[in-house]
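Late entry, evening session. Most of the bench is empty. Finally got around to the prediction I had been postponing all week. Sequence below, unchanged from the version circulated by S.P.
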Amino acid sequence: MSLLKIALLQIAPCDTLKDNLEKGIKYCKKAKEQGADIALFSEMWSNGYNIYHQPVEKWKAEAISANSDFVNTFGNLAKELSMAIGITLLEKNENGPRNSLVLLTDLVNQNLPMQRYIPVTLM
């Protein structure tokens, strides 16, 4: 029996989406080097849960699509590294932003789709 190794990426977020993308890529690669099969990000990695002490309209404007370049970059990275990545984001939605997780994997040989979408409503 083989073990499934999960990296829980409890890392401090940066101030921008671009910086969170770059830092996230770095830590996924590090997790893979250490033998992880799955890397899971902390809640709302896209903006680092940077919603407090901000006007609602400002942080709502930071919501991104589940098909954004940010998410798709992690999908490509999952394929490149042959691992699963659970990326979290403040997702743009017609009913308002929501806290979401997208599980990206290249494990298609195990009948898993490339992308699993798991929305979590932000309260």
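Two things to note before I forget:
The first helix runs from residue 17 to 33.
The chain has a mean pLDDT of 86.
Will write this up properly tomorrow.
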